[in-house]
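3.2 Worked example (two chains)
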Amino acid sequence: MTTNLKGAVVVITSASSGIGQATAEAFARQGSRLVLAARNGAALQDVVDACKRLGGDAVSVVADVTDATAIKALAEKAGAFGEIEVWVSNVGVGAVGRFEETPIEAHEQVIRANLIGHVNDAHAVLPLFLAQGRGIFINMISLGGFAAAPFATAYSASKFGLRGFSEALRAELVDKPGIHVCDIYPAFVDTPGLKHGANYVGREIMAPPPLIDPRQWQTLSFVQQDRRNRRRRSVP
């Protein structure tokens, strides 16, 4: 597995803000070739421009991770730049409120984005990884994958489910030493997530301090340095 990221093709979903943006900028500083995806095309283009100023080569693709066909197309577009080295599956949304007072449509959307969206990412890129014999798939999960959050029941379900999905996929790939499925579990990070999420409690929501600057989440260092975790396989 290469640790030289100059020219490496890296795909990041939900790259228009927060951890996705910080991760894109970190790879750009290493001269990576970035394919950045999000639903907000204008915000995404701002990140692309910033990455180019930092020394990376970046393009934007407007795509919704809940649309499996769009994510397949994203993988094909990224593959046109060369073999994909890293795919960061970063999408995360939430809905806060009592379970019965939160519309079922909101619960469903959280599950679609936080779980099915990551499944779509993996399903799109894994055949490419298998064909080339290598690749790193990074799931941005949450400490919410270990500690359930009352008043965010769908979020909790999605994060527990995503952790299980990641562990199961890692076990399936135990005989593919060049392919790594990695998990990152941030605590509360200073991102627009709470402002963008659905709110059914009737008051402003604030994350408990201290909030972590998203640029402190070293996805790049994780890829480069933590080889022990990248090689770990979870076998039931």
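3.2.1 Second chain
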Amino acid sequence: METGWIKRGGLKPGWDASTFDAGSLGAIDNGPSNFDHDQHQNQIQWSTTVGGWGFFIAAEDPNDNPSNLFKNGSIVGGGDDLTTEPGINTATGEWAGNWPDIVAAVTGGSGNFHWKASFGATDTTVGTGFGGQLWMQYLQGGNSGTLQIAASNGAGSLYGANIQPEGYGNGTYWHVAYQLGFAVTSAFTVLFEAGYQKTPGPSAWEAAAEADWTVGKGAVVALEYDYLSHNLINGYTNASNVLDLMFKRSFD
């Protein structure tokens, strides 16, 4: 299941997107960036609203955090020839320590402007990780502008750059991404996104374009092209070009 949870008052236990995350606008969920946390986790969340402010705190299962295809920065080579060692594949949750992830978030907005600030702390096998994210969005009609900025220390690099803890050594991991959306008609929307990712070692950038067609009630056909200069999640690999086609059907 994409999600599965129950809610009573402000208490919500279950499987859902991390309280740290903000989500995306397009039908194809890219969060809006390849570089952000964008993770579903088992969790117990408590929330409340005061006026136009929302407050959230959650304990999340670190065993649901993904692992990447290299471990402890175990990378050979250097410069543009940097590659992962062959045959390395780590298991989900391998980096989890003894304590749950603790995440807090505050949301707010006025008129067409909305924002979310979140902070996460995680216990990993390479130390305590922490990271923060600021997400801001302006909506007017079907048009939108979305800015996402996140940063973390090495052990919390999943928060800052969607890279395993200290995948490229100790230091600061961060990314910034921006997405523009245009409603061409009430049934046709296009989105453009660009992002930059930095680690203590290499960096990467991305660009994407998506078109969403509403072909019927609750039915959307989406096409997305995504360019990634280097896939730092899986080691310093070559540029990738991905074309996604998706049909999405929802029911009231």
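3.3 Remarks
DSSP finds one helix and 15 strands in the chain.
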